Amino acid sequence: xxxxxxxxxxxxxxxxxxxxxxxxxxxxxxxxxxxxxxxxxxxxxxxxxxxxxxxxxxxxxxxxxxxxxxxxxxxxxxxxxxxxxxxxxxxxxxxxxxxxxxxxxxxxxxxxxxxxxxxxxxxxxxxxxxxxxxxxxxxxxxxxxxxxxxxxxxxxxxxxxxxxxxxxxxxxxxxxxxxxxxxxxxxxxxxxxxxxxxxxxxxxxxxxxxxxxxxxxxxxxxxxxxxxxxxxxxxxxxxxxxxxxxxxxxxxxxxxxxxxxxxxxxxxxxxxxxxxxxxxxxxxxxxxxxxxxxxxxxxxxxxxxxxxxxxxxxxxxxxxxxxxxxxxxxxxxxxxxxxxxxxxxxxxxxxxxxxxxxxxxxxxxxxxxxxxxxxxxxxx
Length: 380
Ligand SMILES: Cc1cc2nc3c(=O)[nH]c(=O)nc-3n(C[C@H](O)[C@H](O)[C@H](O)COP(=O)(O)O)c2cc1C
Description:
Bound molecules: flavin mononucleotide
Low-confidence stretches: none
Number of helices: 18
CATH topology: TIM Barrel
Strand order of the largest sheet: 4-11-10-9-8-7-6-5
CATH architecture: Alpha-Beta Barrel
Distance between the termini: 40 Å
Radius of gyration: 20 Å
Structural class: alpha/beta
Largest sheet: 8 strands, parallel
CATH class: Alpha Beta
CATH superfamily: Aldolase class I
Number of strands: 12
């Protein structure tokens, strides 16, 4: 049976991934904060976005090429930043960066990934996106931006929805400690996941390598807080201005949910807004990202990226219809890597492409952007 009949949905990839990743890593990937109501709200709100199918529209050749910030991407979606990606599956950062670049999709490297910009930048053909968790120290800030730029990242993503660490109760209970160590409990979990453990043994223990040079004198006292939290600050508008001045390429601000923030960000000269509730990992009373999107679209004329809860090509169309220009995913790409290793990302991209084409065909629309205004939101 070929991969496309066996793993037809992201839920299929998730199910296989779950059986291959030790519990503590799974709890890090797959849980949110509080009661996880925001996570559920994302799904419910996406399901409420409906389109009425068209008839007698003849054959429509789908065109999925999507322009964003001066580049053409083959498909309207890309890889969102995921910290400690290589903890979830050894080598995940390079697998995803290579596959995304080969498929002409954007890849975003997190500040707290397990691979450095120097390792990953060259795999992105000079067009990687680097995500910054805002360092407090100004020299560290300068150094990180220079490293990103010199390694081949041309777009900066400033994440602003983590002013403090969230509690992530299920993740903590899962047993992940920082830096990751082989406690008896973790060893017992690893014993049940031989493929992961073998790959781990070859790759060694993961660490937040980008931060190595800044953290010689820093140790986290709380075993659930990682060094990334000790180095970062809660940024304000002055901080944003500093970043805008320091970075001469496209600047995207990630984690926006209020229309009035989007208006101000546009005034401050950012190049794109990333609407996100961080997949419910930060705040349990946030609106679904898809609920926040229409007001932000109405308020600003910048390109809008969207994430949180996207699980199919149809979800991508829903977001674009309600105002997004581009859609990003975090967990889904990691389900793909954990399920199928280096073949996972290309498989998932093709799965989503097929789903986009099938659903556009029902609507008689060639390009996702032509769906703008064609969706309606059903009553809760
Ligand atoms: C395990 C995990 C780690 C994450 N780490 C980061 C990070 O380092 N920086 C960041 O800006 N967002 C981070 N995010 C949020 C993602 O970039 C993205 O906003 C979110 O995963 C989108 O929702 P989705 O997973 O439903 O696609 C992380 C998400 C997950 C699941």
